[in-house]
Backbone:
């Protein structure tokens, strides 16, 4: 099996424990309460899950099973192709949507390959990280030729997952004491995208990770995972990494950095990672709900006051994303841009 490419090796303190010891698991929320009238209870449960975990699972979410089965089958067919076929839709600095097999998280290479597809095609975003530069650019999707129905299947999935994401955004708004539609305006011209993740079996699961520890930068992530498992969440209560056990057809929801900023730290964006598996390949499909490029992200006025002053300075989403994208293509000497760079220093 040869030697591991050192680019994949995590430093010792970030390597995974390969035994699962703790049963403390993220909450499961049943969205059928939306139709049974018990919405207040549902909103309270969601608020509690966001505060205590930053992560929860949803069941009875309304995404039709056959739509999920179709995207699962299509993504398997795509990733099953030769590397040369997949690289026909390879992403680069000029075309940031597409196939990528050497992503780095915190400067260590992830044991995975991905295909990114924006939900708005083209996606409109700042051309450069320079705050003075007002120029915009468009990211066009790169559609694989195979499987032939790929585009249709992906679009069908995107429509369904978007509905679920906006429903959750509404429930989260309510749980913060805001109107249900308070946050929707930020998503006119959204920069959201769907990532198809393929984690091949990894002969060195004690050294490498499927995805290194990170927080999601957007507002919300709505993730479908297959039955293999491997996602781990850093539990807020004690800082332990706990596994997120797959429940068939459930979605995993997590609060991203933007909701942390909007809520002025009430709901924190929590670190997570994916442990590699030596035997089985794994597939997952996150939908990253991202606002429009022109949105300036800052704590919401309704959620701050004299006793609870804003903990973050405003930042522009388009510039934030442009900075991230630029650094995505090579190993960096410095840390990626993060929301803590905008934190107001405490006196
Ligand atoms: C991500 C992520 C988790 C998973 O892509 O940001 O955290 O289970 N993925 O694939
Ligand atoms: Ni993530």
Residues:
């Amino acid at each position: 099996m040869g030697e591991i490419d050192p680019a994949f090796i995590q430093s010792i303190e970030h390597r995974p424990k390969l035994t699962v010891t703790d049963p403390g698991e993220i909450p499961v929320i049943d969205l059928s309460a939306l139709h049974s009238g018990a919405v207040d209870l549902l909103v309270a449960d969601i608020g509690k899950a966001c505060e205590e975990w930053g992560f929860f699972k949803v069941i009875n979410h309304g995404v039709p099973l056959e739509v999920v089965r179709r995207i699962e089958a299509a993504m398997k067919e795509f990733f099953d192709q030769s590397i040369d076929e997949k690289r026909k839709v390879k992403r680069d600095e000029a075309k940031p949507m597409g196939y990528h097999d050497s992503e780095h998280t915190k400067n260590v290479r992830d044991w995975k390959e991905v295909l990114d597809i924006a939900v708005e095609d083209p996606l409109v975003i700042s051309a450069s990280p320079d705050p003075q530069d007002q120029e915009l650019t468009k990211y066009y999707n790169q559609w694989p030729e195979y499987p032939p129905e790929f585009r249709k299947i992906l679009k069908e999935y995107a429509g369904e997952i978007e509905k679920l994401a906006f429903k959750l955004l509404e429930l989260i708004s309510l749980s913060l004491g805001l109107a249900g539609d308070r946050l929707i305006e930020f998503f006119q011209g959204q920069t959201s995208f769907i990532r198809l993740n393929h984690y091949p079996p990894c002969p060195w699961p004690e050294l490498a990770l499927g995805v290194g520890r990170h927080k999601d930068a957007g507002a919300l992530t709505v993730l479908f995972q297959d039955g293999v498992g491997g996602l781990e969440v850093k539990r807020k209560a004690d800082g332990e990494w706990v596994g997120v056990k797959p429940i068939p057809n459930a979605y995993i929801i997590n609060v991203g950095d933007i909701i942390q900023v909007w809520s002025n730290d009430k709901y924190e964006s929590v670190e997570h990672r994916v442990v590699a598996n030596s035997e089985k390949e794994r597939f997952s499909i996150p939908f990253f709900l991202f606002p429009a490029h022109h949105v300036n992200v800052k704590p919401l006025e309704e959620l701050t006051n004299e006793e609870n002053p804003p903990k973050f300075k405003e930042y522009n989403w388009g510039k934030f994303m442009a900075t991230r994208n630029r650094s995505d293509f090579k190993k960096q000497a410095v840390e990626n841009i993060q929301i803590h760079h905008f934190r107001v220093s405490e006196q």
Notes: The longest helix spans residues 150-175.
